[in-house]
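Q: I have two molecules that I believe assemble together. Could you output structure tokens for the complex as a whole instead of separate predictions?
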Amino acid sequence: MAKRIDVSGLNAYYGSFLAIEDISMTIEPRSVTAFIGPSGCGKSTFLRTLNRMHEVTPGGRVDGKVMLDDENLYGAGIDPVAVRREVGMVFQRPNPFPTMSVYDNVAAGLRLNGTYRKSQLDDVVEKSLRGANLWNEVKDRLNKPGSGLSGGQQQRLCIARAIAVEPNVLLMDEPCSALDPISTLAIEDLIGELKERFTIVIVTHNMQQAARVSDRTAFFNLAAVGKPGKLIEIDDTERIFSNPSVQATEDYISGRFG
Amino acid sequence: MDITTQKPAAPPAPGPSAPADSGAARGVTRPGDRIFLGLSRGSGIFVLVLMAAIAAFLTYRATLAISEDEANFFTSFEWNPSGVPPEFGIAVLAFGTVVSSVIAMVIAVPVAVAIALFITHYAPRRLGGPIGYVIDLLAAVPSIVYGLWGALVLVPHLDGLYGWLDDYLGWTGILEWNDGAPRSLFTVGILLAVMILPIITNVSREVFRQVPRMHEEAALALGATRWEVIRMSVLPFGRSGVISASMLGLGRALGETMAVAMVLSPSFTINASLLDPGGGTFAQNIASKFNEATEMGRDALIASGLVLFVITLLVNGAARLIIARRKEYSGANA
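A: Yes, here they are, computed for all two components at once.
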């Protein structure tokens, strides 16, 4: 189900402030693409333009083109709600619905789509939790609140919730930054498995993580505070971390950034 | 022994200053702390003593009256405490109080929640602010003013609504209009709904505003529409807050006095239809009878006040139970 993303000439604004400027890139299906860069460079903003979440922030506005295979996400008559059903998202802090059980959390997206048959829901919930490597830990407590799980389990629950609706793309906004190293490892292993089925885009501050999990890496930077963020380069991860073509990338990766 | 190696080996080792430290753990008492502690502890105790005193007073005077009562205090429709023998009961008052408050809740809670959602999630900010402000002002209007408005504006304009209810719901019996003046428990309910709307709206609005952004984004990212976000994230998170808000409103509705007295034409009857004039509430009955009551009459009124007091306590207790039962799902732990 994975689809290719093709971005061209994309600008995103907060009110009149231009947050990211003129971004063009291609994100390959069934691969992991990592976004790295200093804080404030617009990588999270860019990620949120890929499922039209940017515009839910007051003043958020986008122009440019994001093609998901043949469909422009910002084309006329495209419903942002429908876009978000195709492009799933996992957030920085685990955010299971606190009022719902583990089971209901995973089933939430399906119920939104109008699937209510118990047997079908049971199947998808089990499949998604297995897909998120969480099934064995929660199979005896499916009816307990999702917020009672540990942080790492909650984040995998959120991943299960996102993949339950079989999206074409999975966006992850620093999914491990609130987790301990062991939970982080569990999520990274999971990302490796999920890329067989989905197009995955991950924002991370952890360059080792980008090097470990991603196939392609995009480096974002901004000229100065108050200036828009820009895409500096995107290339195979190996190349970015060994022999990048732009000096700024090398400076950032080697920690010589000033 | 070298002090640098001793430290990590025994972290809690207090060292040579141990006696002074253990003294300090008990706390250096500063005059400011002591005064504040005394004031806050005193205030806390004072509230408890006050509550106990009120309960004791009500119970004592009520017992005096009830022991003289020749009718059944809970089931009698009579109110003749100065008669020989004295006969009085609270059935009519309990019915009127509960029914008018329930009508008020049924009308006010959905409207208040809808207004709160509109202000927090639908209205543009420059519209939501002023609306919230106006609602705050409504909460400050004295109840006598609501009573005047109810008697002079609401009552004369209810014929249309009563006719409509009679046409469509008259078959139920309880909403049948027999062409009496619309000074009924139903009208009281409408007026009480208007009066408790601001407080329920305000508290609900604050609760909805505190829904963490990340819970709403969780729903949005799954492809939820705005209404679905509200259903999945906002309402569940705000549930216990809305219940508390409703209980605050219910407390006010149960005890409301002047506005009810000005709108209702009271009688010691329970009508089959809520649209028939007549009935009464605890507070309204006390207000209209107290000035002219005999000693025995006052004690009887106090007995009815005690029942209102107990009903209010029960309502609050029930609300706490509802909230506590769903605590692990409340979102407070996330």
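A: One point stands out. Chain A touches chain B at residues 51, 53, 56, 58, 81-86, 88-89, 91, 93, 95-100, 108-109, 112-113, 145, 147-148, 158, 161-162, 165 (CB under 8 Å).
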